[in-house]
TrEMBL record:
This is HTH cro/C1-type domain-containing protein. SUPFAM superfamilies: lambda repressor-like DNA-binding domains (SSF47413). It comes from marine metagenome. The chain crosses the membrane at residues 125-142. Keywords: Membrane, Transmembrane, Transmembrane helix. The keyword Zinc does not apply. One of its GO terms (molecular function) is DNA binding.
């Protein structure tokens, strides 16, 4: 069976799509595209491996979800093997042998302990399915706009965090400090947000219309291929991790008041403005 990344390369070639075309449309570095097609995923920036693979697969007309699943399987089979007691996480799909493929001679080699192991695996698989279903249900519940909680049998409605507007920023807050520095990387910029708490913010791309965004706790959000001036205005950055081209911006995290992050392409510049309430 051909490795999945070789199949993707063959699909691209069959559709007469060059890596340069994919680079022009996605702004993904040619080096990273070669890495995907050669299975050298270790050269890709860790936070963007899945993002780059998804964008590449969709550009060549492939099944991005299937490619991501094959990536997980591929990376799992290339990790150092450690002998552990059997568990559900150790079961790989290719290791499961269908009963109709086992002939009478092969069945003689299965001992009673092998049968018990298969029974344990079946039970473990059922428990895993139930566990995954429970996770999906809880995620659906907690991703509603409003989260209902109860204290001493009295229902309390916790509203989600609201994005702050430029007008609110000017009327209710004042600039506390400002930091401007040249960036060691050239555009396009790739921004990744990872949240531990609810977060709300607005985005302005150059002179385009302002868009509001809201992320639940434990969400991730990616902005790919930023080539124009872009403003991010956060209500606060508590529990927020920000990565710029795979580099962590640690000085921005865990600020309890509004914070504005501006990226400029020429020259590559980052401006951070911290605000505090008016006294």
């Amino acid at each position: 069976m051909a490795l999945f990344y070789k199949e993707l390369k063959e699909l691209r070639n069959s559709r007469d799509i060059s890596l340069e075309e994919i680079h022009d449309r996605t702004k993904i570095n040619i080096k990273y595209l070669h890495g995907i097609e050669n299975g050298n995923f270790e050269i890709l920036p860790v936070p963007y491996v899945r993002l780059f693979l998804r964008a590449y697969t969709e550009e060549i007309g492939g099944d991005s979800q299937r490619a991501l699943e094959q990536l997980d399987s591929f990376l799992g089979t290339n990790r150092p093997h450690v002998q552990l007691s059997p568990s559900v996480s150790d079961i790989q799909e290719d290791d499961i042998i269908a009963k109709d493929e086992i002939d009478a001679d092969d069945q003689a080699f299965f001992s009673s302990s092998d049968k018990k192991l298969r029974q344990d695996m079946t039970k473990g698989g059922i428990l895993l399915i139930v566990f995954i279903f429970a996770i999906i249900v809880f995620q659906k519940i907690f991703k509603e706009d409003d989260i209902a909680m109860a204290t001493d049998n009295v229902p309390i409605l916790t509203q989600r965090v609201q994005a702050i507007s430029e007008i609110q920023l000017l009327t209710d807050f004042m600039l506390d400090k400002n930091d401007q520095r040249l960036l060691p990387v050239a555009p396009p910029f790739y921004v990744k947000l990872i949240t531990m708490d609810q977060i709300a913010f607005t985005i302005r791309l150059d002179s385009a219309e302002i868009r509001s965004k809201f992320l639940q706790a434990n969400d991730e959000y990616d902005f790919v291929g930023i080539e124009n001036k872009t403003d991010f205005l956060f209500t606060d950055t508590k529990g927020l991790s920000i990565y710029l081209n795979a580099h962590s911006l640690q000085n921005i995290s865990n600020y309890e008041h509004p914070l504005k992050l501006t990226l400029k392409p020429n020259p590559p510049t980052m401006i951070v403005q911290w605000y505090k309430p008016l006294r």
